[in-house]
Write a sequence for this structure.
């Protein structure tokens, strides 16, 4: 565990364990590196050097007043790898972290051996989903009612602004983050500070990629999505737009399956990584393109 300076006045908090090829884990918005504990990190460090880090403004990383757009986030990852002297790695990102990892793989293909996207919403591939059209809404609504959080209109779009608003309400009531309650109240309070005291509320909603960017993806990619996730339309389109990509849909899984159902997706990730060791140069189209449901 340590800290690395990546920009003027910005340090990233990170943890590195294990040995072998490097796997970098990138969490989503409102979370921190604890998202990967105990199951994901412990499982992967048996065979790999695993590095997880807190995005700027999250966890124990610095909380600068500005600089939360895609350019800064991508620069943070580049500097982290450079300072740790990692020339090439496997990237695994959840939600926003998957968007970040995807863009990094497009821009720096020689530094990324493989890419795993865990339930990331890609705006260029899907229209916003309204709460009433989301299969998991009735379950989520009961969670909000239990925590006495006022319900949004059912016609509301599931987007960054809605999640930010609901998290603000949760924090005001002393509840954990509504879109990642397993991380507890500390993460919720950090999110509240990030939204109130920085420019992140305007910057974090910016998109990392468009469809033309996806056409340039040359890194072997695995997308894993939950059947009940609001991001599922992205899964259905990803394989058609991005070359060298395979997509798996987990039955009866929602957005946070990496925490709630780690045993279901980790074997898929392990198999994917083992088939793509560092230094493998060739790729075959028939290796990567399919849509499976498990």
């Amino acid at each position: 565990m340590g800290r690395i300076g990546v920009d003027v006045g910005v340090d990233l908090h990170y943890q590195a364990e294990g040995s072998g090829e490097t796997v970098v884990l990138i969490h989503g918005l409102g979370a921190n590196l604890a998202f990967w504990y105990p199951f994901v990190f412990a499982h992967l460090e048996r065979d790999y050097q695993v590095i997880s880090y807190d995005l700027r403004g999250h966890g124990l990383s610095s909380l600068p007043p500005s600089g939360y757009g895609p350019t800064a986030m991508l620069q943070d990852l580049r500097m982290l790898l450079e300072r740790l002297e990692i020339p090439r790695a496997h990237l695994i990102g959840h939600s926003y972290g998957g968007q970040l990892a995807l863009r990094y793989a497009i821009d720096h293909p020689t530094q990324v051996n493989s890419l795993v996207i865990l339930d990331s919403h890609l705006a260029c591939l899907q229209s916003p989903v309204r709460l009433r059209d989301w299969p998991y809404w009735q379950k989520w609504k009961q969670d909000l009612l239990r925590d006495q959080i006022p319900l949004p209109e059912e016609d509301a779009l599931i987007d960054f602004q809605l999640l930010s608003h609901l998290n603000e309400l949760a924090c005001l009531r002393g509840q954990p983050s509504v879109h990642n309650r397993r991380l507890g109240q500390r993460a919720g309070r950090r999110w509240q500070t990030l939204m109130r005291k920085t420019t992140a509320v305007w910057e974090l909603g910016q998109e990392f990629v468009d469809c033309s960017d996806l056409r340039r993806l040359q890194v072997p990619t695995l997308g894993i999505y939950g059947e009940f996730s609001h991001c599922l339309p992205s899964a259905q389109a990803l394989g058609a737009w991005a070359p060298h990509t395979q997509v798996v849909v987990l039955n009866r899984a929602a957005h946070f399956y990496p925490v709630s159902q780690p045993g279901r997706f980790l074997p898929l990730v392990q198999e994917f990584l083992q088939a793509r060791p560092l230094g493998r140069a060739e790729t075959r189209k028939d290796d990567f393109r399919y849509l499976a449901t498990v």
Remarks:
- Confidence is low (pLDDT under 50) at residues 175-182, 281-290.
- The first strand starts at residue 2 and ends at 7.
- The chain is about 35% helix and 20% strand.
- The chain has two domains: 2-126+207-293, 131-203.
